[in-house]
Amino acid sequence: MKKRSQKWFFAFICILMTLALGSCSDEGNVRYADDAFIRELCGLPPVTEESATEPEETGEATQETTESTSEPRETTESTGETRETIERTAETEDPSESTVETAEPSESTSETEVTSESASQESTEIPEIEKTPGDLELKNLIIGSWRSEPISVEAMVKEAVQGESWLVPYLTLDPEKLTVHVTMDFADDGKATLNVEEKSYQDLMAYIKGAVSDGVLKYFESYVKALGLKLSVKQYLKMAGISIDSYVADVIEKSAGDLSIESMRYQCLFDVLDGKLCVSETAMGIYLRECYFEIKISDSQLELLQYFENGKEGNRPLGLDVKLPILLHKVPTWKGNN
Prior knowledge:
- By secondary structure, this protein is of the alpha+beta class.
- The chain is 52% helix and 18% strand.
- The chain contains eleven helices and 13 strands.
- The protein has helices at 2-21, 35-41, 49-92, 95-103, 107-123, 133-142, 154-161, 198-227, 233-240, 244-259, 283-288; strands at 23-24, 30-31, 144-148, 151-152, 179-180, 182-186, 191-196, 266-273, 276-280, 291-297, 301-309, 312-313, 326-330.
- An eight-stranded antiparallel barrel has the order 3-6-7-8-9-10-11-13. A two-stranded antiparallel sheet has the order 1-2. Strands 4-5 form a two-stranded antiparallel sheet.
- Helix 7 crosses helix 10 (244-259) and helix 8 (198-227) crosses helix 10 (244-259).
C-alpha cells in the first residue's frame, strides 16, 4: 500500500515538473508533454486502439444523447409558443361576440325570409267556390242599392251618454225618435257598402241636441234649488257666464265618438253561398263563411233575418248595435246619401 502511494506521488511530481519546465530530447528538440509522454513517465501502459476508440464512441453516444435530450426542449419551446399563440387569439377574439355574430341573421337572410313569406302568401290561392244556380240568382237579385226602414239606435245613444253620468237622471229620450235609415249598396264586383242616410242622421242629432238641452236645464234647476237661491235658471246661467248652447255642444262633442256618421259606415266584400248573404273584409272570410246573414229576398225587398259570426248568432250585425230583422227596399235610382 505504501509502495503504491509512493509510486503515484512520484508520478504526480514528475507531471508538475514536466508542465513547468517542459522536456528536451537527446537531439535538442523540444518535446511537448503529450498524453503518451505522460503515460510513459507515470509507468502506465501505452494507449491501444481499442482504448482510444471507446472514449470516442462514448463521446458520440453522449453527444447523441445530448442531442436527443435537447430535442424535447425544442418541442417544449414550440409547444409553449403554440399555447401562447392560442391564448393571445382567445384574448383577442371574444367567444361571446363571435357567437352573437354567428347567431344574428344577415340582411340578405332576412330579406330572403321575407321574400319567401310573401311568395308563399301570394301563392296561397283561395279555392274556387262552386255555386248553385239558386245562389247565382240570389246574388243577381241583391246587386243594387237598398234603403232600410227606420232602424232603432236607442242602444247606441244610451251607451254614448253614459260618460255624462250626472246628466242621465235628467235626460228623457223618445225611442221612436232614436232611429236612422241606412243604405246598403251591393256592386257587381263583390263589394258592399253600408252608410247611414245623411238626412236621417241629421234629424237624429237635432233631436239629441234638444233632449240634452232639456236635460241640462233640469240639472241646473235642481242645482239652483239646492243652493237655496231665489233665481231662475236663466238668471243663474247669465250670472255664472254659462252659455247653454255651448254647454250642450260640449256634452254632445264628448259623446260624438260613438254617434259620428263615420262610426256607422261599413265596407266589406259579399257573396251568396248556400242561400246565405256572406260578408267579410277578406275573400278567405267569404270562403270560410265567417259572417253571414240569413235572408229573405224578392225583387223589391231584402230582409235581414239573423246574423251569425263563426257559426254563432251575433247581436252586432256589421259592428252596429242594432236589432234584427231589418227590412230594406230596392231603390233602382238610389245613388247614395240624397
